[in-house]
UniProtKB/TrEMBL annotation:
It comes from Dulcicalothrix desertica PCC 7102. It holds the Pfam family Glyoxalase. Residues 1-123 form the VOC domain. The lineage of its organism: Bacteria, Bacillati, Cyanobacteriota, Cyanophyceae, Nostocales. SUPFAM superfamilies: Glyoxalase/Bleomycin resistance protein/Dihydroxybiphenyl dioxygenase. Gene3D superfamilies: 2,3-Dihydroxybiphenyl 1,2-Dioxygenase, domain 1. This is Glyoxalase.
Amino acid sequence: MIGYVTLGTNDIQRAAKFYDSLLSEIGAKRFMETEEFIAWSVSPELPALAIAKPFDGNKATIGNGVMVALEVKSSEKVNSVYNKAMELGATDEGAVGTRSALPGFYAGYFRDLDGNKLNVFCMLQQNA
């Protein structure tokens, strides 16, 4: 069970503003915060997403192959979160739509202001 995922940032205030606005699209709010770390969640019982300045004091860098996936309940919500990310200055990594790898998988991919890769997705209802 994942408790939380942390993404590195070199500008905590800029990243906080981005994630405050982006994650409000799915009802997440800050629940833990220090000068070096902020975490958001929709519920204390569910996994969280956090940003942090690296503990070792070195520059935050992007993890090649690392991605955080945010699950939502509908394609409309996928669209709204993806569009919000673009509005906030994120970089497109794959526009919203269905993906052939998994039937019913609807997703959009983007990179945040620090270059961290995220995905927002839902599973569409399949006709039996």
